[in-house]
Amino acid sequence: xxxxxxxxxxxxxxxxxxxxxxxxxxxxxxxxxxxxxxxxxxxxxxxxxxxxxxxxxxxxxxxxxxxxxxxxxxxxxxxxxxxxxxxxxxxxxxxxxxxxxxxxxxxxxxxxxxxxxxxxxxxxxxxxxxxxxxxxxxxxxxxxxxxxxxxxxxxxxxxxxxxxxxxxxxxxxxxxxxxxxxxxxxxxxxxxxxxxxxxxxxxxxxxxxxxxxxxxxxxxxxxxxxxxxxxxxxxxxxxxxxxxxxxxxxxxxxxxxxxxxxxxxxxxxxxxxxxxxxxxxxxxxxxxxxxxxxxxxxxxxxxxxxxxxxxxxxxx
Length: 316
Ligand SMILES: Cc1cc2nc3c(=O)[nH]c(=O)nc-3n(C[C@H](O)[C@H](O)[C@H](O)COP(=O)(O)OP(=O)(O)OC[C@H]3O[C@@H](n4cnc5c(N)ncnc54)[C@H](O)[C@@H]3O)c2cc1C
Fold this sequence. Notes:
316 residues, Rossmann fold, 8 helices, 16 strands, alpha/beta
């Protein structure tokens, strides 16, 4: 297997380690391709998870661009001949995987949550219709396959001893199709949910903005802060820095109270490592209950009121 490491501002993203979990499950040797600019160092963490890190340095690789990256990766694939090429299902992976698959003439499956090998057949599972249907995709026989893995679906599997780093120089011809002008930092808010120990998080189940103060009061009684799922930021109810998830923040509080949040994977990846997750949802089949330690099937406003009353009685 060849895993593709993803970098942001020179740092390798944690999700780049998750393909090692798939390799270990399938009993495959795994190399990891790290593509960087000429002056960048390797990332020591990678060798703890992969048999080999193939570090390709080139001035054209300093910024991610699918045209140049797919050319470099196709050359690494030619040298290492992996059966599987795997990368995170991120903004970069979503774009790069189809480019690379087209270049290699390989089938591609994106947003994969499980992989199974049956004889000579490869099957990949992915969710459809906003997580309501799990599809098992049987791949046509091919020399190799390209997959993007859903963040959090596979746990990184450390190796017993560190792998090796191989520096590879390649000649690249592709002209970058874009130029990175810079990064735009989100405005700093008054509350940093990433540091909070108690988070009361609201989703679309909180239907009326007029009920938000009741949730804020509950959070205060618990000594915590209010966070939310993306639809509540999109509505402008709370600022972007309160959003938990894939395109928001990752939080690991002691208590995460999820109120009226369905548990879409984009949300769950940002809160699944919380110490204690309590979910309140009217729908007993809501996927949030798969990650919650405790679940309450009830109208969230009733639960908020009951908790507030109890906390006021006991003095918080
Ligand atoms: C590229 C991309 C990135 C994304 N990034 C993020 C992200 O970072 N964070 C994020 O959260 N989402 C993100 N999303 C959106 C994500 O896919 C979901 O749409 C979103 O998380 C759903 O939010 P929700 O659970 O609040 O709403 P819904 O899915 O609509 O769920 C509402 C839930 O409330 C329950 N409910 C309704 N009324 C009540 C009530 N009175 N009491 C109790 N329960 C009730 C319902 O049963 C339902 O389960 C992203 C999507 C994309 C495509």
